[in-house]
Amino acid sequence: xxxxxxxxxxxxxxxxxxxxxxxxxxxxxxxxxxxxxxxxxxxxxxxxxxxxxxxxxxxxxxxxxxxxxxxxxxxxxxxxxxxxxxxxxxxxxxxxxxxxxxxxxxxxxxxxxxxxxxxxxxxxxxxxxxxxxxxxxxxxxxxxxxxxxxxxxxxxxxxxxxxxxxxxxxxxxxxxxxxxxxxxxxxxxxxxxxxxxxxxxxxxxxxxxxxxxxxxxxxxxxxxxxxxxxxxxxxxxxxxxxxxxxxxxxxxxxxxxxxxxxxxxxxxxxxxxxxxxxxxxxxxxxxxxxxxxxxxxxxxxxxxxxxxxxxxxxxxxxxxxxxxxxxxxxxxxxxxxxxxxxxxxxxxxxxxxxxxxxxxxxxxxxxxxxxxxxxxxxxxxxxxxxxxxxxxxxxxxxxxxxxxxxxxxxxxxxxxxxxxxxxxxxxxxxxxxxxxxxxxxxxxxxxxxxxxxxxxxxxxxxxxxxxxx
Amino acid sequence: xxxxxxxxxxxxxxxxxxxxxxxxxxxxxxxxxxxxxxxxxxxxxxxxxxxxxxxxxxxxxxxxxxxxxxxxxxxxxxxxxxxxxxxxxxxxxxxxxxxxxxxxxxxxxxxxxxxxxxxxxxxxxxxxxxxxxxxxxxxxxxxxxxxxxxxxxxxxxxxxxxxxxxxxxxxxxxxxxxxxxxxxxxxxxxxxxxxxxxxxxxxxxxxxxxxxxxxxxxxxxxxxxxxxxxxxxxxxxxxxxxxxxxxxxxxxxxxxxxxxxxxxxxxxxxxxxxxxxxxxxxxxxxxxxxxxxxxxxxxxxxxxxxxxxxxxxxxxxxxxxxxxxxxxxxxxxxxxxxxxxxxxxxxxxxxxxxxxxxxxxxxxxxxxxxxxxxxxxxxxxxxxxxxxxxxxxxxxxxxxxxxxxxxxxxxxxxxxxxxxxxxxxxxxxxxxxxxxxxxxxxxxxxxxxxxxxxxxxxxxxxxxxxxxx
Lengths: 469, 469
Prior knowledge:
Aspartate Aminotransferase, domain 2; pyridoxal phosphate (chains A, B); 3 domains; PyrdxlP-dep_Trfase (chains A, B); carboxy-lyase activity (chains A, B); alpha/beta; 7-stranded mixed sheet; 4-stranded antiparallel sheet; Aspartate Aminotransferase, domain 1; 11 strands
């Protein structure tokens, strides 16, 4: 979900179907198929319902079945939409999604309404489910994070947000009067959870890298030392890809006197699956006193739709479950009905790639991220790359059209590219060449200077006129 | 989500892949593909992590890429799984899912990672989305429930539970100290919401039909008259398909002095889409003082994965949005990343069927539900069918194997069949014949009698020995 923080803002005044897509289309869209677009410049106003673009649903005519015209029209819309997706997929760099997958072997399953109702470990009477695959995937992740089969509980979620909502809820149920701590660079879903669950929430400062500042954390713990602590630890922040120092977080808790009075949820949306394959990286492991880990399935693994994996300690779920007596079964998920296709996609990729396959891909991503950072710096562009991370942060390109074309996620003066397996050197070269070329026109000597981003990435990473050595 | 209340219990001691499926398979499963099944009778124990059946993820061998053996093994698992799904789909009656759909035309889109990040009406920089389809679908539903384009807000959810979580959260934000009222036959997600959101929750009694008892509701409102009321109104309860009397609920609120101090969320998971097409049915409409309506997309419409539609008043979302300043954009959904395929499935079906198509299907379902009820009664089996409903409630079959085979949802002594467009007369006949035949062996004269279910369905619907006329 990286970059969601800048949702919309960069899209001011733009249309749903990008112009490139229209160009890619062999023939122009017939008028009745054009998305309904507001005239002139589109305004985003909080709380106004802007129908930027929309394929309206139209009532079939009485003779449609005979003429087949409706089917033909719909096929036309879909074919053009597909061309647009191809183009948009080709020029995508900003979000941490692996767009490179081939699930052709699973197309046969799209004819079924596959629903994993309720708990993965308790079967419902609905027979069209995929629990066999779900439990297989969960076992794999539990092993990855060092939790025994009979000591874990988990499920396949709809996305990283659901994982955070679940982890923090479990924490609250374990410590009903606990205070939630999270660094200010945590994903917005963490703060949303605090509000939904009516929890006291303390925002902790961050270092320039984006990691949680444990000095500030210790201070704030001390101020609230009468109440248990529930902590969201980021295994890869949204914007800078920073990994909070889990060991230092635990040490800070213990030093401040919080022995056994804390619950740690690890938001591993992206790096939760990459870190285990990075040499020398600190381990996310249930051998440490953590309560839950969540990771997204559509990010590093790649999946047609968002999904995620949630793993927690079984004993916590028992505490939760004992409170839901109105149910004859255990209801410990956030959602009731769950997408049964997602576990099969994950199962398929895990089986095909295995540990070795993921390791290779992680190494490639890190290599390519270094390549990107080095080339940016060599071109005189401020850039930062955290250790353990494939998220390259750099100055925000001046032209919003360029930002949109490459689907970069931006915040303030910075922007980022997340190097996923689908981001090849070729793609990076084409991006870099375009950026360098454009920059010449944006920053002409004496007219306009590239922005200083030392505040965001540190002086040593900033190449503005003031900080350039 | 009908019947989820009985999740698991009826499955005691059973395996993941039903025996029929094994029989359907041409060749037996090679041993290494057999789901890992615990020996003997499976025990469901709350809080024990039962690995009933599982397709384990296995690490590829080093030479797998050369031999292609792994691909072949996986293809085998999938082919057998598909046969199992066909069989399970054929014998399904208990859950309100329309299993009859053909989305072949959309198979081409499975290659794309389609994600509708955040708000449907504010574009993010991620270009591989389907907002054009989402807004088209939302417009259609807003019109169905009489809300103008510039007065509604909504989004495509992951399931009915997300709709209820959203509607009740909006209610709580509008009335932070409001008390949540819901009939005891409301879906379990309503009570889950109360707990998650730390709201006071009052359970209201129901009539035999399953509708909310407005006399009890009035009494309970009066007891809490100092606090605003947030009410969950059921447009089709989970078990009995009962439709709460929305007009009487509003009248009760006003009589008790709650003018303008209430928020009504309508849980229309199943019937929200059927009711508009039932002649003489009371209308769910935003012309009445309601705040939100949710409906499932995988139920009456039919969809490969769970999804739903949430429509609320824009003014409420503005109240919500003003509180989320940490976001540069509006974050008013429960989930952050959202399945971009679901809106396209819905758009496709709405376009193909239209109002007329749905009306025809609703009429067919109601006709078939009456057929089923009549045939049950003629066979001496206690049964109830609420007006406006296609959910036929009847005595719980004595044999759990039979319950499982037809995937019936059960609660206590009752069971139900939800007649969906995929439930044909042929399917019902085959079910009825089997039931009647089996019953002869279950209830032999003098040995064992069929249960009295008058408490659940009323004396006039009960055909036990005591109540039979």
